[in-house]
Structure formats: C-alpha cells, structure tokens
Design a protein that fits this description.
This protein is of the alpha/beta class. About 45% of the residues lie in helices and about 10% in strands. The chain has two domains: about 180 residues, Alpha/beta knot; about 60 residues, Helicase, Ruva Protein, domain 3, CATH 1.10.8.590. The chain is built from eleven helices and seven strands. Helix 2 links the parallel strand 1 and strand 2.
C-alpha cells in the first residue's frame, strides 16, 4: 500500500508534533513506533530513558523508518522532552481517580491539528507495562484514552502510536491550515509553566497556605486548573509578578 503524502502545508504543521515514549523497554517497540510515525508523516521521536537504545533490534525492525530512529532525541526526563511544548497530551489505557480533561483519539487529533499550526505539541506514551504515572500526567494538559475491548484493554505501544498518528494525519487532511497571523498568542511552553509552578509552590509555603509535609493533592489540582486555562506568556508574567509582590510583602 502506498504511503500517504502530506502537502506542503500539512508537512509544516506535522513538523510541530512530537511523539514521546517514556522508558520504553523493548527496542522492537521503538522501531515499530517509528514506522507508525513515518506512515503518517510524523518525524519527531523523543525517548525518555529508554532501557535499550540504540540497539541492533531497533535498527533491524525500523524497515524504512531509519531516519526517524537515527534522529530520535533521548532525554533523561519527561520534563526535558516537552520543555518547549505549548500543549502536551498523555495517552493512557486506564482512567484515574483524579480526573484529567479527557479526549478520545479523534477529539485529541482535532485539537492537536489546530494547536500545531502555531505551537509545538507533544503526545506522550507511557511504559509498556505500567503506563504513565500521575506525576508524569501532571505535565499533560489532556489525557487521551483509546476505547477498546474492556475484557482485553492492553494495547501494544506501537499500536497505540499508530492509532493516534492516523487520527492526527486524518485531521490534518480534513482541516485546512488557518492563517497564523490571525491566531491569538499561543499557550506558554512547559518550561515556563514549570518555573511558574515552582514559584507558586514556594509562595504558598511561605504564606503558610501549603504545608510541605502534608501537601495532599493541592499542587496537582492547581496543575489541572492552569492546564485547563492554557495561559499565555503575558498572563504567566502577570501571575509571577503577583507572586513576587506577595513574596515582598511577606518579607521572604
């Protein structure tokens, strides 16, 4: 079967999308994910602390997707892998007790298609056996859940990548690119948000609103609040200015 071809405009948007695999354990899964990406015109693969990479098995199984494999970026943390991304989607096979805003693959692909016109977007996949931790989902604005057979819900890593990659490619074809000049300022990237969260937590501790020994789920709920808000850089600057003023008043 012939591989789908992206138009010039689609290729530009797809270049703003990255697939992130967190601690993949099998090099064959990395290679299969690279093949799934190339089928759907995705090219940027990030690997967070892979157990076996580079590896001969990955190179042997890449089968034409060697360029994606060779260009893969290896990082030691999820935060580093998504630092310059304005939006992060976390793929998860299981739902959580503390609910994240959730999409199915088609809904997520529509949003990714829109956001990737002006910003870097990441889709994060967890470990083959245990998926993403709640702490890793704190880095994600949305959870993407692939509905499947409830009696057999374990989806292979590369298969999950293929599902999302296909939906993204289809969404890009269905929706013509908009003029970026007409867009509002994009959401701030994750590096700036992590700096803001660190500042916010310090201030909350300083004013005795947050007990660092008994934090409960306060910061996680605040992550979710600001992830929903998707603040712009100007807005984050204002918030940090407010925190700085509070720090000064408190003399800390």
């Amino acid at each position: 079967m012939a591989r789908p071809q992206a138009t010039h405009g689609e290729a530009r948007m797809l270049s703003n999308i990255r697939i992130v695999l967190v601690e993949p354990s099998h090099p064959g899964n990395i290679a299969a994910a690279a093949r799934a990406m190339k089928n759907m015109c995705l090219e940027h693969l990030y690997l967070v602390s892979p157990e076996k990479y580079p590896h001969d098995d990955a190179r042997a199984r890449a089968a034409g997707a060697d360029d994606i494999l060779n260009a893969a970026v290896v990082t030691d943390s999820l935060q580093s892998a998504v630092a310059d991304c304005a939006m992060v989607f976390g793929a998860s096979a299981r739902l959580r007790t503390l609910n994240w805003p959730q999409f199915d693959p088609r809904q997520a692909a529509t949003e990714i298609s829109r956001l990737s016109q002006t910003s870097q977007v990441a889709i994060v996949f967890g470990r083959e056996r245990t998926g993403l931790t709640n702490a890793e989902l704190d880095c994600c604005h949305y959870l993407v859940h692939i509905p499947c057979n409830e009696q057999f819900s374990s989806l292979n890593l590369a298969a999950a990548v293929q599902v999302l990659a296909y939906e993204i490619f289809s969404a890009q074809q269905a929706e013509p690119p908009t003029n970026s000049d007409d867009q509002d300022e994009p959401p701030v990237n994750q590096l700036e948000m992590q700096r803001f969260y660190h500042h916010l937590e310090e201030t909350l501790v300083n004013i005795d609103f947050l007990d660092p020994d008994k934090p409960k789920k306060l910061m996680r709920r605040l992550y979710r609040l600001f992830n929903r808000a998707q603040p712009q850089q100007t807005e984050v600057n204002i918030l940090r200015g407010i925190l700085t003023a509070v720090d000064k008043v408190c003399g800390k």
